[in-house]
Amino acid sequence: MAAPPLPPPDPQFVLRGAQSAVHALHFCEGAQGQGRPLLLSGSLRGLVHIWSLQTRRVVATLDGHGGQCVTWLQTLPQGPQLLSQGRDLKLCVWDLAEGRNAVVDSVLLESVGFCRGSVLAGGLQRWMLAVPGRGSDEVQILEMPSKTSVCSLKPEAQARPGMPMCLQLWQADSSPRPLLLAGYEDGSVALWDISSRKVCSRVACHTEPVMGLDFDSQEARGVSGSAEKTLAVWSLDEQQALQVRGTHVLTNPGIADVKIRPDRRILATAGWDHRVRVFHWRTMKPLAVLAFHSAIVHCMAFAADGLLATGSGDQRISVWSLYPCT
């Protein structure tokens, strides 16, 4: 007889103290000379908590969004700066150097939708920012920190994809032209060439809004999840045409977030059914179902060393060590 499958692991540890639902997570690598990364979380009450994974306690609390939900967190590679996006129509730039936690700049947003921003690092001081734009179907591209408008990406009138729901800026190693992947309300994913302000290709991946996507630029392969119970895996060919490669039906509908681990070995999905599902990224073989949370899992983040953090409406953050990076 075949041996029964191993039961899913328990979290390595659980962080309590967010005091409201957790909607954003991000690992800050190599911070303050520590061996372990710091973990940043954004809450429904508008607070950003900075957690030490050594003491498993909050080391600082940032309050810059007037009590409105924090939906996205991202650190900049060129220095200890943090971006936080909130439902208060504001994106704050924080200086975290040498223990500081001050807002040094902010960008006023034009859309209060659920769409998180995306960053593409340029030179040492310059970077590109994509955020939802003024029109309900627009994406605004800014050069930062000058806040210079690069362009506004608006679909052609006949396309009617609805609101952008998730964004990912990226740039191929072989090209200087920045590209944007956008998941839309109608379930489609589009690839934009920012320089020409045109859609290179668009593919219908879902019948419900795209809630999360991630892209493996080395393999030119991406994945998206939606309000339905289907994961879509798609690829990008040398002519920059998107093509659906396969779909994977889940037990229950509703994917709030999808993340490919930095080593591109595993994929995790955050479910409305309180579950985190883990897949082998190359084969999409299901590996584990993590059933710890008691409410919607809103967000996830992978650290460079492979740690997975998941944040939920149950106000808890669970930290997992799965299939260690080689």
UniProtKB/TrEMBL annotation:
Gene Ontology cellular component?
A: cytoplasm; nucleus
Keywords associated with the record: Repeat, WD repeat
Which SUPFAM superfamilies does this one have?
WD40 repeat-like
The family database entries (InterPro entries) matched by this protein are listed as: WD40/YVTN_repeat-like_dom_sf, WD40_repeat_dom_sf, WD40_rpt
Any one Pfam family match given in the protein's UniProt record, by short name: WD40
Segments spanning the bilayer are none
GO-annotated biological processes: DNA damage checkpoint signaling; social behavior
Spans of repeat WD: 203-244, 290-326
PROSITE patterns linked: WD_REPEATS_2, WD_REPEATS_REGION
State the name under which the record lists this protein: G protein subunit beta 1 like
What gene name is given for the protein in this entry? GNB1L
